[in-house]
Write a structure and sequence with these properties.
The protein is mainly alpha-helical. It has 3 helices and 2 strands; from the N terminus they run E-E-H-H-H. Helix 1 packs antiparallel against helix 2 and helix 2 packs antiparallel against helix 3.
Length: 113
């Protein structure tokens, strides 16, 4: 299972689990000047979609754990903090990727003018 771990009954990849196919594609296409900009943008959009899904997943986990705190079974305050940290981290990664995409789009538009 190298690089994978199970959380909540489903397999998840850690953010340091390795390169994605889209990342490798970006490296290959940067050599040619023709369609490179579009391919990099598409890869970035794919990555942003992955980050949106990840952020949504962590928000749901946080909501569920917060609800569990009010239930009859014992819960761990340290586990709640861990889930909160994961949620904040995934939201900040998404926000940063969106800002980078926006800056790159503006830069490319300035080059085209």
């Amino acid at each position: 299972m190298g690089g994978h771990r199970r959380e909540g009954g489903r397999e998840r990849r850690g953010h340091l689990a390795g390169k994605r196919a889209g990342d490798q594609e970006t490296k290959r296409t940067t050599k040619s000047e023709g369609g490179t900009r579009r391919r990099i943008t598409i890869t970035s959009l794919r990555r942003i979609e992955e980050l949106k899904v990840d952020a949504h997943y962590h928000r749901q986990r946080l909501d569920l754990y917060r609800a569990k705190v009010y239930g009859p079974r014992p819960t761990s305050p340290s586990r709640l903090k861990e889930v909160e940290r994961a949620s904040v981290l995934s939201a900040s990664l998404l926000r940063r990727a969106e800002q980078e995409l926006e800056a790159e789009t503006a830069r490319l538009q300035a080059l085209d003018e």
